[in-house]
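User: My collaborator and I are trying to settle a disagreement about how two of our proteins should look. Neither of us wants to argue from intuition anymore, so we agreed to look at predicted structures for both before our next call. Could you fold the first one, then the second, and keep them clearly separated?

Assistant: That sounds like a sensible way to settle it. I'll keep them separate. The first protein:
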Amino acid sequence: MIGRVVKLERPVADDYALMLKWLAPDGAVAPLTGDMGDEPTVEDLQQMNRSGNQRFLMIKLLSDGTPVGTMNYRRDAPGAYSIGAAVGDPALWHAGYAGDAFIVLLDLLFHSKNARKVSGMVMSFNKHSMRMMVNGGFVCEGILREHCYLDGKWHDAVMWSMLRSEFYERAERHAAMSDRLRLQDLVPAEDKKQARQALAGYLRSARLTTSFDQFLQAEDDKDE
C-alpha cells in the first residue's frame, strides 16, 4: 500500500516493540491521543491484531523503508470503521507522513474493504490531527465534552467522519489538480472488461435463460 512519501505494511514481530515504545503512556504520542492510562504489552498488540479487533499497520518511508509510525483501524459495524495514527518522533510530526498515510488507509478501506463511513476521534488540544481532519475533508459529527484528562484539566474530544461518497468526490477533485490522490484498483479495469466479454461470448452462443438475455442486453448497452 503505497502513498506519495510513505507506504503501509503489515507489522512483523520486531515492529510490535517499536509500536509499544511509541504508544507507551510516558511517550510523546500518548498525551495527544488521550491514551495515557493505557499500558498495553507487545502480546496485547499482537493479540488485538490477530483477533481482528484492531488491525495495525506500520508507516514506513517510501525512500528507504524506515519505520516512522503506526496506523490502526477497527470495524465498528458493517461498512463502518474507526481509524487512528501515530508518528513516533515529534521531530517528524510536521513532515506530512501521517497525512499521506491517512490517504493510503482511506483508499484501502473505501476502495478495497467496501467501507461506507470512516471515523476518527481527535483530542481538542491536538493541533496536528485537528488540522489534518479539517484540511482532509472530514466532517465534524460532534464534541464529547470533558472526555480526556490532561495537565490538571478535563478536555473535549471531537468526532470526525468521512462518507464513501465524500471520499470519491474529493479524490476526483484532487486528481484533476495533482497526483495527491490516486485510487489503485486491485484488478485492472481492462481485465474486468475482458472477463465480462468472455462470459458474454459464451452466453450469446448458449442463450440459456431470460436472465442471461438481460445480462447481454446490459453489456450491449455499455458498448453503445
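The second protein, kept apart from the first:
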Amino acid sequence: MAAAALLLAVQVVRNAAVAQFAELLPARAAQAWPDHPQPQLTIGLTEIAIASRQRQQVAPATFSRITDAARKMPLAPEPFLVRGVQAQIDGDQALATQAFRAAELRDGRAIAPRYFLADLYFRAGDARSGLREIAVLSRIVPNGVSSLAPYVAAYSKNRRNWPALKALFRSDPALENASLSALATDPANADLVLALGNVRIRPPGATWQDRLIASLVTAQQYGKARSIWAQTAGSGPVSGIFDPTFTDSKAPPPFNWVLTSSTVGLAERRNGLHVIFYGQEDGPLATQLLLLASGAYRLTMPLTGDRAHGRSLVWSLTCANSTTPISRIALDEAATRGWTFTVPAGCAAQRLELSGVSSDMPQQVDVTIAKLQLEPQRG
C-alpha cells in the first residue's frame, strides 16, 4: 500500500509539473515527463513557427512528434490544424477542410480552426459557410465584432455574397453595425452600404448611418449626405433651416441642430431654443449644416430674456469648407432688425452657428429664441 501511495504521489507531482510548464516552458515539462504529449505538442508547434519565420522546411521529426502526441491526445485540436496546413500547402483543399473541421469539433471555442475554415470557404466561393464561421468568431474572439468587421466588409465587395451577408446581419445586428461602419468610412462605398443596410431602420446602438453621412460631408458630397440623412430622419425635402421651432430632438445631426451643454453654456429645446451663456469661455452653443442656394436671405427671430447682454451671443454663417464667416451679427441686433446675408456662388453648404463670446467683465446671459424665419430676398 505504501508503494502504491508513493507511485500515486509521483504521478501527481509529474502531472502538476507538466500542467505548470507545458505551454510556457515546454522543455522543462518534457524533462519532468518525457513522453507526455502536451509538452511534445507545444515543442512541435514552436518548431513549426520558428521554421516558418526563418523560411525553412519543417524537420520530419517535428511532424513525427506532433503525430505521436495526436495519438496520445485524440481530443487535442492542434495536430489537426498542422495536418490541415500541410494539406493546404500540398494543394489538397478537401483534406485541409476535413482536418480543420476535425480541429473545430475537438474544441468549439478554438479560434484558429474557424479562421482557417473561413478562409477556405471564401476561397472556394462558399460565402455562406465562410460567414457562418465569421459569425461564431465574432462572439468568441476578444473584441471580435470590431476586429472582424473589416474582414466581413472586404467580402461584401462581391455582389454574389450579398444575400449571405444580409442573412448574417439579420441574425447579428452588432456585426452588421460594425461591418457597415467600417465600409462607411470611405464615401466611395456609400452605394454598397445602402444596398446592404436599411437606412430607415435604426436599431439601438446603430451608428453606421451617422458615420456614412459624416464621411460624405467630409468628402463635400453634401447633396448625397443630405438625402441619406433625410431618410434616417424620416423627413421630406427640406429647404432652408430644419426645425426652425426647435421641437424635433429625434432627427440626427448635422442637418438638425447640434446643441451644446458644456463649460461654455447650455442650449436646450424648451419653448424654442433656451440658451444660457456663462460668459467666461468662447464657444458654439447651437449649430446646423445648411444647403442654401447662392443668393440673399433675411433671418428674423423673436427673442425674450436678458436682452441687455444679448451682444455676448453671436450668429455666424460660414461656408462648410472654410473657417472665415460669410456674415456675423450679434443676437440682439438680429432680433431687433433682422439679419440679412448673402450666400456666395461656390458655397455649396453652410454652417449656421450661435456662439458665446466672452468679455473682460463676464456676464451670464439667459435668453429664449421662440423660432427662426428664413426668407430669400429678391432683387
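Some points you might bring to the call about the second protein. The longest strand covers residues 283-290. Residues 1-34 have pLDDT under 50 and may be disordered.
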